[in-house]
Amino acid sequence: MIEFFRKLFAPEQSGATARERLRLVLLSDHLSLAPDVVESLRADLIAVISKYVEVDEANCDVSFEQQDRAVAVLANIPILAMRSRTPPSSPPGAPPASPPHSPDPPPSMGDPIGAAYAVADGGESGGSAAVAPPPSPAPRKRRRRRRASGNPAPAPG
Amino acid sequence: MRELQEDPAPGSSSAPRRRGRAIVVTSGKGGVGKTTTTANLGTALALTGAAVALIDADVGLRNLDIVLGLEARVRNHVLDVLEGRVTLDDALVTDKRVPTLRLLAAAQTREKDDVDTEAMRALVDSLRDRFDYVLIDCPAGIEKGFTNAIGGADEAIIVCTPEVAAVRDADRVVGLLGNRTSIKLIVNRLRPDLVRRGKMLSVDDVNAILRLPLLGVIADEPGVIISTNKGEPLVLDDASATGAAYRAIAGRIAGTDTSTPEIPLPPTLFQKLGSFFGGRR
After folding, report:
1. Parallel/antiparallel/unpaired status of strands B182-190 and B101-104
2. Gap from B177 CA to chain A (nearest CA, Å)
3. With contacts defined as CB-CB under 8 Å, which chain B residues touch A12?
């Protein structure tokens, strides 16, 4: 009887749940069905990140993954060395100038220390995804950053 | 049951070239009502006097003959024709209730991989010369059986139920169909009472994803099961609201009905009482 009144006054809207699940699953389907989109996103991401750090292009990995409540862009971009702190207008292919103050020792070659991660939780908007390297060189660690929280986080350090 | 004028000679080789329409009924997901839809739309189109050929492309899982109630009369099947053992006319089964309706049954003991896609396409093409409509009942899935079924069709009807899995699969199939001249939607098994209470995806929810021209909506009702039990498509029952909905869809396919598809409403209290006291069996 109590169950009856509970259902009477607070009916569960499983239709809304179905709508939300459908939206997410289709977002995920469509992203994984468009390899050309993933490929150009990969190229663009690497180009942008290469302005700041020297990356191991051969071992970059960009993909879309469905989490519990969202579809996420996962980018695993190994960093080989830091570039100088000159403005990012310098050509990406230019050799890194010696830094003004001594940085941390570069990580070993091919060690994937950078993992960028962005959550695309709005199917409609096609804005830029927030991409931020993790603050510490933690191999393969993925950080979650809600796009709703606003602009990309400032670079650490 | 309806009286029908005899078509001059549907399906006979002497008939003039018609260049009928080849329409595949597909969904991706299984169990959403493709075969029931094909049977009812084919019968409804034939009731208007059009010459209709139904092809069961679900080789290995022959069902369309059962739904149409023609299973006892199937002697040859589509692979017999494709592999040249019998002529097309030997394999086409005439529906005695609707003489302009013909069925080309699937092979039950063969596999979908046995069907040659090009031969199937040629078969559909030759049927278009002899029939006004060639409806192809597509198997579930997106493998060889699907490729075979859609090959000869230049139009597609997507059957989708208001469920997440069905919409997802339908969305995939729409992508695979590519630039077919016409892809239209039938929402099947809608429960208007559940939609009203927010417990089921609505027609708008489904079509917000698929974005296809809506041919019609079929409510979930026991009559469909009963008609399948009997092998009598609901469109043959003038008293059935679902039969009327299928006939309206057939009218939209033919272009004779330009009305907007009706979304079924929940049954009234009076209707509920009526079905309680004297339901069909």
Report:
1. unpaired
2. 14
3. 199
Q: Which residues in B lie closer than 8 A to residue A29 (C-beta atoms)?
A: 168, 171-172
**B154 occurs within a structural domain:** yes
pLDDT in tens, B137-188: 999 999 999 999 999 999 999 999 999 999 999 999 999 998 888 999 999 9
E strands along B65-137, which residues? 92-94, 101-104, 133-137
Would you state the pLDDT for residue B188? 98
User: Looking at this protein, which amino acid is placed at residue B17?
Assistant: R
Q: Which residues contact A67 (CB under 8 A, 6 or more apart)?
A: A119, A144
The domain total for chain B is 1
Model confidence, pTM: 0.71
pLDDT tens-digit readout, A88-125: 554 545 444 444 444 444 444 444 444 444 444 443 33
H helix or E strand, kind and range, residue B65: helix B64-68
- Checking ipTM against 0.90, whether it exceeds it is no
Q: For residue A116, give the H/E element and its range.
A: strand A115-120
Nearest to A26 among B168, B197, B201 (CB): B168
CB A100 within 8 Å of CB A36? no
With respect to residue B224, please indicate whether it lies within any of the assigned structural domains.
Answer: yes
B49 backbone φψ class: left, alpha, beta (φ>0; ψ -120 to 50): left
Contact B162, B187 (CB under 8 A): yes
Domain containing B182 — which CATH number? 3.40.50.300
Q: What's the confidence (pLDDT) of residue A86? A: 61
Ordered by start, the domain boundaries in chain A are 14-102+112-145
Q: What is the domain range of residue B77? A: 21-276
In the prediction, which pLDDT does A8 show?
A: 61
H or E, element range at A115: strand A115-120
